[in-house]
Amino acid sequence: MEKEVSVNGPMPIYGTIAIPEGGGKYPAILIIPGSGPIDRDGNDRKGKYMTNLYKDLADYFKGLGFVAFRFDKRGTGKSEGEMLVTGLSDLVGDAYRSFEFLRSHPNVDQENIIVCGHSEGTIIATALAERTNPAGIMLLSGGVDNLMEALKKQRQLAYQELFTLPGFKGWINRKLKIDEKNEKKYDKLMRKIIKSETDIVRVQFFFKQPAKWFREHSSYNTREALKNVSCPVFALHGDKDPLVDNEVLHDLPRLVEGESEFHIIQNMEHGLRYQTKPKSILQHKKLFKEALKQPLNAEALTKVSAWLLSNYKTEDSRSNE
Questions:
Q1: CA separation (Å) from 258 to 111, 135, 164, 255?
Q2: Where do the domains of the chain lie, and which CATH numbers do they carry?
Q3: Per-residue pLDDT of the chain (321 residues; tens, 9 = 90+)
Q4: How far, in Å, CA of 242 to CA of 158, rounded?
Q5: Which of 288, 246, 238 has the alpha carbon at shortest distance from 266?
C-alpha cells in the first residue's frame, strides 16, 4: 500500500509512505534525498534526470517487509519553500520531523526505524542519527567526508582528468595551471560566503549562491558526528562513482561506537545503477544519463537486504523474503 501524506510543521512536508500488505507493525526506513531540486521519487524538477531512485528503493524496502517513507524536499513536488534559502539545519529539521512522523505511525515499530541517506542525504542522516539515535543508518553513495571535503576531491579529480587530456588540450591546461587559478577563485568565493550573514549571496551581480547551505555544511564535521553514533552503520559506494572517495569508508570502524559494515560495489555509479565504463568526473552527467537505462545494481541490493534482514528482521519481514 502506498499513500500520500503531509507532515505538519512550519513548512509542511509532502511525501509517500509505503506499507507492506497485512496488518501489524513493521520496521521502517526513512529515505533522505541527495542534493539539488529532487522530489520524493528522486527526479529533478525539469524532468532531465528521471531516476526514480527513491521510489525504486521504497518499493524494494517494502518487498523486504519494511515501511518506507520518502518525501519532497523544499521547493520540489508538493512541498513549499525555496531551495536557495534552505540550509543544512533546515534539511536536518525536515528529516527529524519525518522521523517523528514514522515513530508515531500505527504500522511502524518505533524502536526499529532506520535512516537511509543518499549522497548529501548521508550527511543529513549522520546529523539526524546524533539527534535521534535511530535503530540504524544507511549511507548510500556518500558518508564520512563532509560536503566541502567531497567537493574538493571532485575538483581535484577534474583537474587530473583535464591535465591528462591528449594533445594540446592537456598541455595548455597544465601550462596555464588551471588548478591553482581555479582554487584561488573558489577560495575567494567561499571567503565571501562564510563571512556573509544572508541566505543567498550574488556572484558577479547575477548568479545566486546558497550561502546559508554552504556556511552550515562548511562548519559541520561529519567525522566528529560519527563518533556520537552508537547504532549499526551500513555504507555502500560504487567503484564507478566519481563523486565520492571510496577510501574514506575504511575510517568507519574507528569512528562509530557501534557495529559498522561497508561495501564498494563493482560496476556501480552514484545512482546505484550498473555502469561498466570507466568513471569520469568530466563525463559524469553523460554517464549518469546513460546509466538511467540500467537497473539498480543487483549486488548492491543483495548487500542492502542482507544487512537489513540480519539486523532488523521480524516475523513480518521473514514472510516477505
A1: 17, 11, 42, 9
A2: 2-146+220-319 (3.40.50.1820), 151-212 (no CATH)
A3: 899 999 988 889 999 999 998 878 999 999 999 999 999 999 988 888 899 999 999 999 999 999 999 999 999 999 999 999 999 999 999 999 999 999 999 999 999 999 999 999 999 999 999 999 899 999 999 999 999 999 999 999 999 999 999 999 999 999 999 999 999 999 999 999 999 999 999 987 788 999 999 999 999 999 999 999 999 999 999 999 999 999 999 999 999 999 999 999 999 999 999 999 999 999 999 999 999 999 999 999 999 999 999 999 765 544 444
A4: 9
A5: 238
